[in-house]
Amino acid sequence: VFQKGILRNTLIGNIRAVDGVSINIHKGEIFGLVGESGCGKTTLGRLVLNLLSPTSGDVAFDGINIYKMKGREKELWFRKQAQLIFQDPYLSLNPRLTVSEIVGEAYVIHDRGMSKSERREQVVKLLNLCGLEDYHALRYAHEFSGGQRQRVGIARALAVEPQLIIADEPVSALDVAVQAQILNLLKDIKKRFNLTYLFIAHDLSVVRHISDRIAVMYLGKIVELAPAEQFVSNPRHPYTEALISSIPIPDPTLKRKRIILPGDVASPLNPPPGCRFRSRCIYAKKNVEIS
């Protein structure tokens, strides 16, 4: 996936939710995107999926500009290539449908030519793959725990055999123990099907655990991008340094010096000129404002 010069304005006050972002996501990698709430992470993910239209810029998938695709056939083709795992598994599951109907709906939409029994059989295989039992296929969303609902959401995303999965805060609503289980599941199915992930989160410790490369987003801009192993050991941007300093150390005898950022996040309606982080940066000089 390649994004070039993506810009996304909102209708309220012309907010640039995503401003001039250019990234490459390599096939088979887990690309982590981290940043605080409101920085544009989810907007960027939805732009990749063609769920939002950019004010300017392009998104290319396997060399094909998805914004220039026309016709339902081409749209359905891209929907088979890229799928979304939602942050809130409960709100993203239709309460009127059984799990079998929710996951099996993809086979109906994409006209796989399956009978009802064949769809049911395939759904059960996906549920088993995601750590659920056969009988779960006949249950409704409200009968599951948060972790089980997210497993259903993952099974639904896998139903069309996508190449790219956008995971938008997939574990933020779950307990820590369940988070680890879901992260391990995502890593297992990624390896099994050679999937590519855009993994979005606000928790750097979670992103670091699963990603090959990590990008940090602040007020609609990518401020740093580096391999995961280099990211923590040698951060280059002061905002990244502050994020890393907030990660708890599991050893109670060790302490990490916290970096407390001054001021508040600037308004996206009126971001500072030059570097977006300038108003909170302890290293900023006057020329940063215009450069």
TrEMBL record:
Which Pfam family is an annotated match for this chain, by its short name?
A: ABC_tran
Domain ABC transporter: where? Answer: 1-244
Q: Name one GO molecular function term.
A: ATP binding
Q: Which GO terms describe its biological process?
A: peptide transport; transmembrane transport
Coiled coil segments of this chain: none
Task: Enumerate the UniProt keywords alphabetically.
Answer: ATP-binding, Nucleotide-binding, Transport
Fetch the InterPro entries from UniProt.
AAA+_ATPase, ABC_transp_ATP-bind, ABC_transporter-like_ATP-bd, ABC_transporter-like_CS, Oligopep_ABC_C, P-loop_NTPase
Family to which this protein belongs: Belongs to the ABC transporter superfamily.
In its UniProt entry, what is this protein called? ABC transporter domain-containing protein
Source organism of this protein record: marine sediment metagenome
